[in-house]
Amino acid sequence: MTDSQRLHDHAAVAPLGAPGLDMSEFGGTATDHTVWSCVGNLTAVRSIRARVREFLEGAGYVGSVLDDAELAVSELATNALLHSRSGQIGGVMTLFIKVDPERIRVAIADQGEKSTEGEGALREDDDDFGRGKLIIDSCASRSGEYYTDTTHVAWFEIDST
């Protein structure tokens, strides 16, 4: 079993050592949300996309809502891998999904700013970067991010009504 397959479901609490967010945002019934952590490696984005699709299909969502959520979460997860400690050796990221009659809320919590020790030059201005926010905004009704001392959380919501 690969590291990315060693995944854990959690009722409504973040796993020990994994990045988290304000769990009051994820109150409700036990079946309207999920919290899921995975190792931050190259297969994490694919695993997170699959988890979002599986959870939302189980909640009765179909069509473009599924596609939009899957695309937007892949952008959040990719950014966490590229720009935070979650993408470094030993890194972890946590996926949060909550649904209610009005909206789907998805968040990725990562382990905060990436250590730059021993890294090469910064990317060039013409590199293929910087379009993730535009993609998320085209898929989502709302999006944002916030920081704690050790965690960065990026989120989006898609209205389901």
Low-confidence stretches are 1-18, 120-126
**Structural class, from helix and strand content?**
alpha+beta
Mean pLDDT: 78
Q: How much strand?
A: 15-25%
Q: Which overall shape is indicated by the principal axes computed on the Cα atoms? A: globular
**First CA to last CA: what distance?**
40 Å
Strand order of the largest sheet: 1-2-3-4-6-5
Continuous helix count: 3
Order of helices and strands: EEHHEEHEE
Oligomer: single chain
What radius of gyration results from the CA coordinates? 15 Å
- What percent of residues adopt helix (DSSP H or I)? 25-40%
**Sheet with the most strands?**
6 strands, antiparallel
Would you report the number of β strands? Answer: 6
